[in-house]
Amino acid sequence: MAQLWGGRFTKETDKLVYAFNASIGFDQKFFHEDVTGSRAHVKMLSKQGILTEEERDAILKGLDSIEKDVDEGKLEITDEYEDIHSFVEANLIDRIGAAGKKLHTGRSRNDQVALDMRLYTRAQVQEVDALLKHFLETILKVMEENKDTYMPGFTHLQKAQPITLAHHFGAYFEMFKRDRLRLNDIHERMNYCPLGSGALAGTTYPLDREYVAEELDFYGPTANSMDGVSDRDYLIEFLSALSIIMMHLSRFSEEVIIWNSNEYGFVEIDDAYSTGSSIMPQKKNPDIAELVRGKTGRVYGALTSLLTTMKGIPLAYNKDMQEDKELSFDAIDTVKGCIALFDGMIATMKFNKKVMAESAMKGFTNATDAADYLVNKGVPFRDAHGIIGRIVVSCIEKGISIDEMSLSELKEFAPEFENDIYEAISLETCVNKRLTTGAPGLEAIEEEIEACKEYLITYKEIGL
Ligand code: ARG
Questions:
Q1: pLDDT tens-place values along the chain, 464 residues long
Q2: Does 110 contact ligand 1 (Cβ within 6 A)?
Q3: Which of 23, 200, 230, 320 to mutate to test the pocket of ligand 1 (most atoms within 8 A of CB)?
């Protein structure tokens, strides 16, 4: 048991207590961030005359060698140490002796862990953003290739009006675009450096917090040392953004599962992204989409857990906060995996354009347009709605669609019908006449696609 705080104690820590208290099993995830933070701290200490240049150089060299050995697998991070901070410090002292004991001058593990977690999270925010960017490129490609791939649009999972695949994917483009904006907001708010907050009340050493903040690419130091050590808002915001990303992915998964079902047959998931059944040889299951949908719960769980952990904590640091790590790490890894896999699944998915168009032609998706046709011929909309409703009932009885009804039959319902009705309610017309901004009509979707392209080119990635 290697502990940093033995002096005050006369008895060994109980073994179970040691294991219960230790965080090395998971905080080794930010080993690199811990070393990076220590480098900035020690440079500042010598700049301020708190350590000599020789001490600084010895510590920097020691940190380099520890990092190298861990990276090369020559030095193992074991649970002999309480946490990653103790691991680094103990090994430093081992390697360079007395100077190593000065690294922690003017620092507490409270502001140290606050920094490490923030550095780690900041990098993860950027990684998730980059994955989303790539995913948006995949979505855009599908949009560009499917401007005239007709399909039914649904409300209540009932066929509603015809749309195109490009239009449908465009909705997801907007969702993931907003997710990136959320990540950017989080980055802007979180990008302040807590190091120098000390245990809670700053320190009597003349630290230069602005220098450390700049060294570590922060906008500046955090404003209040009590808040600096005990703020986990940024992590809660990140988990919240990740939960929303998963909610979007889960909705998308649900659609892929439905579209891939035998009944719909709109899409076929690539062999590389589906799985079989151990007993039913005919099966090709959408497991990836189902898992993404399933894992959404676990990411929500991490958010709920941290909100609950934080809600009763008095200022400033309390050990409860150690619980911010495991579930967050799990949620971050989960979301990154889900975006990457979903991206690959969409990029390789086959769209059965014919099946989609046929489906759009059935189910009276052109009923609104038929009513609008009558309105254009002078029938009040409410009357037109009633007339088309009665035509639909008659079509259902006969097992046909509106365009399969003869003109004389149509005229029995309303004398205003003329030969041009067939053109007016064709799939192409129904879609392409919808030209309001954001609608599926060809010119409208082309404008939307242009805007998406422009966004991908001009939108600044986080940290760049
Ligand atoms: N492992 C601790 C955590 O994750 C590090 C901070 C320890 N600070 C303390 N006062 N015990 O929060």
A1: 667 777 888 888 899 999 999 999 999 999 999 999 999 999 999 999 999 999 999 999 999 999 999 999 999 999 999 999 999 999 999 999 999 999 999 999 999 999 999 999 999 999 999 999 999 999 999 999 999 999 999 999 999 999 999 999 999 999 999 999 999 999 999 999 999 999 999 999 999 999 999 999 999 999 999 999 999 999 999 999 999 999 999 999 999 999 999 999 999 999 999 887 777 778 789 999 999 999 999 999 999 999 999 999 999 999 999 999 999 999 999 999 999 999 999 999 999 999 999 999 998 999 999 999 999 999 999 999 999 999 999 999 999 999 999 999 999 999 999 999 999 999 999 999 999 999 999 999 999 999 999 999 999 888 77
A2: yes
A3: 23
Q: Is the CB of 293 under 6 A from ligand 1?
A: no
Distance in Å, CA 315 to ligand 1 centroid = 14
Residue that is written with structure tokens 């104690």 in the block: 9
Is pTM beyond 0.70 here?
Answer: yes
Q: Are 456 and 133 in contact (CB under 8 A)?
A: yes
Q: HSE on the CB side for 53, CA within 13 Å?
A: 0
Question: Ligand 1 atom 3: the closest Cα is on which residue?
Answer: 322
C-alpha 85 – ligand 1 centre gap (Å): 9
C-alpha–C-alpha distance, residues 141 and 149, integer Å: 13
The answer to whether the CB of 343 is under 6 A from ligand 1 is no
CA nearest to 201, candidates 315, 50, 83: 315
Q: Which helix (H) or strand (E) holds 446?
A: helix 442-458
Angle at 219 between CA 217 and CA 220, to 5 degrees: 105
